[in-house]
Hints:
alpha/beta; 4-stranded parallel β-sheet; 11 helices; binds 6-O-phosphono-beta-D-fructofuranose
Amino acid sequence: MEGSSIKKIAILTSGGDAPGMNPCIRAIVRYGIANNITMIGVDGGYNGLIHGDFHIMDRRDVGGIMQRGGTILQTARSEEFRTEKGQRKAIRQMSSEGIDALVVIGGDGSLQGAMKLHAQGVKVIGVPGTIDNDMYGTDMAIGVDTALNTIVDAIDKIRDTASSHSRAFLIETMGRESGYLAVQAGIVTGAEMVLIPEVETDIDKLVKTMDEAYRHGKSHCIIVCAEGATPHTTELGQIIDGMDLGFTTRISILGHMQRGGKPTAYDRMLSTRLGAKAVEFLLKGESGVMVGLTGKDITLTSLEDVTTKKNVLALEMYEMANILAM
Ligand code: ADP
Ligand code: F6P
């Protein structure tokens, strides 16, 4: 893009990895090179920025990564970067390397870090990457679709064994603070009930649901519990264990498998569009913003809004999940 003062752009991935980070890195690198920008990979998130773990990335460095889960740049949670001292070190490393701008791919914590850099004069743009889908400023974040498909596949399989044994299952999805994955998975797998952090679990209702499912002759009972729901899945299991509900109960915590695996076609496309647009917007002079998907369009939201506003879960979806269940 003509007229931009930006000649060198660095990229990092931070926080929990999400399937689709690699296609995003690929798009950023190739879109930058196509605009005569020197592209720099930062290894290990903000830790890499603090310690100057930089390397030039060319077109071939991002070949063959479209279908790979995880992130080739490694990710990290950096306590040092939370401090002003850590941020100062990172800015110093960027300036001695001649880096003009930074793309941060990560969740809302990572973009709070990006916001801190922006406030200290660094040109920075954020890309939403988290399976939780809890970020303000985007309908979908990178990794959500893949994680959801992984969960659905797992629940379908668990239902097979649950039905064969006439069992109830508490199946835990990720989402410490967000019930998005649990609600979506609950709807599309036809689960009997969904429990989320946003709504306190009504134990009486849960017991009634399980009891009725048994009395109505269902061969299984699937309860999808988000990781952050209270009480926590294991505690809930203990509470239910002491009751005579017809079904015997098992717990299945899906865990980190939800963050891995090949990105779906949807995630590859979303990541690619967000990555290319991030570079385009930087070269047009934007900074302190995040690219996101709004309807069909790639839009910009200030990091100020991204980091201070909440993407509230559509509770009507949660209600729909529980209404359709019986
Ligand atoms: P995610 O980006 O997936 O939400 P975290 O919340 O763990 O993940 O944040 C990732 C990293 O971003 C943290 O380890 C830290 O280095 C940085 N970070 C998070 N919050 C802040 C903050 N308020 N100030 C500076 N850096 C932050
Ligand atoms: O933010 C993504 C996420 O996968 C959450 O859903 C989950 O609570 C958390 O990260 C787990 O983090 P860790 O990788 O530190 O176990």
